[in-house]
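Lab notebook, bench 4. We co-purified these components, and the gel suggests they stay together. Before we commit to crystallization screens, I want a quick structural picture of the whole thing.
Request: model the full complex, all chains together.
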Amino acid sequence: MSENLPVIRLELNSGVFKIKTEEAIYHISVSPDSSLSRVVEKVVETESARQTVPALDLDVSSADLDDFYREVSEEMYTEIGQLARKLSLSIKDIPGEAIHRVDIERTGRELEEAKGQLEDIVQMTEKATMDIMDLAESIQDDCSSLVDQLQTIKDLEFVQSGAASDDDWDDEPAEASEPAQAPLTDQAAIAVLSAVIETETGLREAVSQLPVAGEADQSEEPEPEAEAQPEPQPQKITTYEFETDVVFQTLYEFCTNEAVKDHIKAMRAEQETAFDQAAVLKTLTDLAPTVTVEDNFFNFPIVAILKSLFQATNNDKFKATLKKMNQTAGNIFLDAVLPLEGRVEEKEIPAPAKAPAAAPKPAGRPGLPQDRIDALLALIDENLSRLEAEKARLEEAGPAASSSGSAISGDLTTIKIGDRDLIINAVELSSELIHRVMARLTSILEALSFQDLSGQRIFKIVRLIGDIQVQLLSLLVSFGAKLKKKQQEAKAVISSKDADKLAQEEVDKMLERISSPSDLKGPESEGRLDQDAVNQLLGDLGF
Amino acid sequence: MSELRRFLRLAKPYRVEYGLFPLSGRDGEIRSSVLKNISGGGLLFHSPDPFPLGRQILLKIQLTGWREHGDELIESENENETVILTAIAEVKWSEPDPEASGFAIGVEFLGRILS
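Here is the predicted assembly.
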């Protein structure tokens, strides 16, 4: 029969097709995932799992089986109780949140989320810690560089010499009068040169007027020494002798500032050890011919004396003091010149050619051969030309050099160009370092800002722990209620429904008990666990 | 039959009724047997007669301990409760049964009849 039937070929994509036959109407749906396979798989898996569970020993008597279940139940109850106790102790000091639910499924899901959040916190904390440590090390490096730069400034000679005794000068005005400040600069040198040139000119004039040896003019101004040496060959030069003690004493007497006088006194006390007295005396001796003399008192410029003392000591404190004295000389001394008592001696020298440099006074000079006078004049002229040239050089370079901070070696008041550059570089670098340190501190603050986020996440986790605590307590109370009921009515038959109802009542009582007291409820305390009540509850349950 | 090995097999002697599909004419005879095993892809049952390969057959599998829940099946608390799963399958294996007289028929599920 079937050979006579037409064959109809259907190609199905989706949907339901209806085929009506004599026996039935077929609704055919085509699905790549038939429910048949899924259903059968479920059956197969479930049944297979059942077959692998070891069956209980059916030979065990019913009483033994009850004992077994009781032991297991009690063991489980005990372990849950101990776990609840530990959790309660751990959570006691952590602020909790409201009791929301007793939903194990949801809590399990949130526990997974909490684990992820904790991992995030750990990673963020580690990263932030590493970042902060790197930044801190960078800051340490920058600070070290900063210290080095400041040390560079501190090591500069003029800074060291000016570092001491600043407080002792507070009673003095910061700005000294212009004339008093100037002498040790270019202008001061020019002034000194002018004075020397003037003296040298006078000397030349005096020498040119000396009587020539052999001429009868010695009787006009006879001198004992001259008479003792009638021969023209032995030359006499004038030497000057000063004492450093007299220098300090005179400075002390002419000083008007008591604080400075104390400093002078201190320097005087240590003059032998702190000062190169020979250097001081040499400077004074060299200058002596250039200053006016009155009754063996040489009128030295004060700044020249201060400079000679400055150069003759290595004591930093004294250097600083002398520098300050120089800067304020116009205010702390009575006059710009200091009348310093000295002695004048004339000595013979075997080589007369060098003698004229000592500039003998015209008065009282013995007669000299004409060639000697000519030699002296030539020497003086040479000195004059040198002095004039130096003066001209200073006058030409002075103003520009002063304004630009040109270096003058050994000068008290100027800064060497190299030092100036060092200072500028150090300051610029220090400023840059400070900005860098500030930027890194800002980065540290940013790195720490995640703490706020961490706090929020930790709060959620704490809340979750609170939920778990409630669930544990509920389990505990539920188990406890059922076991207790069974113990009380050992032979009574308690249905599962009755046991559940009893357990739920106990759980409700427990939740009410461990909630914060109503009289303490407020916006923050509402619904929170009363930890004392929890501990009391656990105690009542024997944990 | 190798296709069936992708699924976990359960060797449980569920009862099964089978017949040619569609059920019509004299070919509509229904016979009863027990399963040798079953999986998500198909099943193996005992038959006194062989089947030609590629033949479509109707299967009514009686699963004890299960009950219907919509189109799905769920475990029944009553282990004696039985649910019938009706399937259309294609014969893929028909060989003499080594364990008994008759044949072992292996089929692959094609679909399910829901009502």
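The longest strand of chain A covers residues 235-241. Worth comparing against the SEC data before the next meeting. The CA atoms of residues 244 and 365 of chain A lie 30 Å apart.
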